[in-house]
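Possible regression after last week's pipeline update?

I re-ran a chain I had predicted before the update to compare outputs. Posting the input and the new output here so someone can diff against the archived version. Not blocking, just want to make sure nothing changed silently.
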Amino acid sequence: MLFSACVATGKSLNGLYIPKLGVIRRTFIQDPTWAVRASVPLEDFQTFFYNQTLDHFNYRPESYTAFKQRYVINSKYWGGANASAPIFVCLGGEGPIDDDITGNGFMTDNAAQFRALLVNVEHRFYGESIPYGLTLDKALSDANTRGYFSSAQALADYAEILVYLKQKLNAKHSPIIVIGGSYGGMLATWFRLKYPHVALGALASSAPILYFHDIIRRDPYFLVVAKDFLKTSSSCHRTIRLSWEEIDRVASEPHGLTKLSRTFKTCRPLKSSSQLKDYLITLYIGAAQYNDPFTRPVKAACNAIDGASPKNDILGKIFAGLVALAPNRTCYVNPPSRPSQSDLGWDWQICSEMVFPADSITNNTMFPPEPLDLNEFVSDCKRKFGVAPQTHWATTYYGGHDIKLVLHRFASNIIFSNGLQDPYSRGG
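New output (post-update):
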């Protein structure tokens, strides 16, 4: 895989499973030596801020309001405009670009060979690129402000910055290749389709552009996660599959939640068995989504589950797997936490246009069945943001149906890269 796929940590809104996207997971077991290999020196990058147009698609006075949009440049390897050396641009996804800058070794590794200029552009409403200088939670609390938070506006941002950069650098003949992973990969694909005069090509890694209504079946994500565990260890898969019923059985006993809290060393007493199950599901899908070749979290979890003492019951084995996935912690399941920018922003994005109704859990996986009730999801979005999701807008605006035929007719120079163990590979 060219990027590790990005995703997902738990339920969104009213207990609905819609995994998040991203390029680098920020909280998971990691091999320190891998982190060193993948890191890029920060001193190679320069940070800039572009006076970005708030609204690219209207001509009202407020549309011309500008906000500071962050982008960074690494010119260490660039062959220069006179040599028409290429420009590699990483399109920011649903989060600050800070970790992407140092964690994206792919761009740096190839920059030397192609003598490329490296550019990372932050997505509007994330990191330091929030209009009006607001915090994200304040921006999202204002209906007028959050209305400017969309993928179409973000793509127009990227186009405006890149046209400006080429003029500034006198790099008229330097081809631009846009790159992204997960949601950023979707943006890279759509950018090439919408702005072919700006980008010569796109590399979209783990980009679920088909992950929308009526295109793929309802449970692809969790089927792939279950398959990853099954291929790693059938006994581990079976233990996890049986654990849900056991958790509910214990929870139904007198003082059952107290027993579960003690068994799993929860940070606070459990209020329901769902709290524990949701946490475990979060860990398992994260392990599959970030099953990189250096840490192999799925294998680590299954080794712990299968290698637990014979004296352990099913829940004891599950706890052993939990510890393997989240080591060096004093407590688990419900620690005090604050939502990240990705958590806050992605809730708005899935309630506006990034509607992924395919994220149901059926009887065909190792997880407890939980179909996605689209009506309930719409009600949640209305309650939280006062708007109903535009379920079909993404495929209307960007396409998706009959994708091979459509791309063959009018698209070119787009590389789709997927690891088959990645749960989002079924949508890209």
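Follow-up from reviewer: compared with the archived run. The beta strands are 11-12, 16-17, 46-53, 66-74, 87-91, 117-121, 176-181, 201-205, 414-417. Marking as no regression found.
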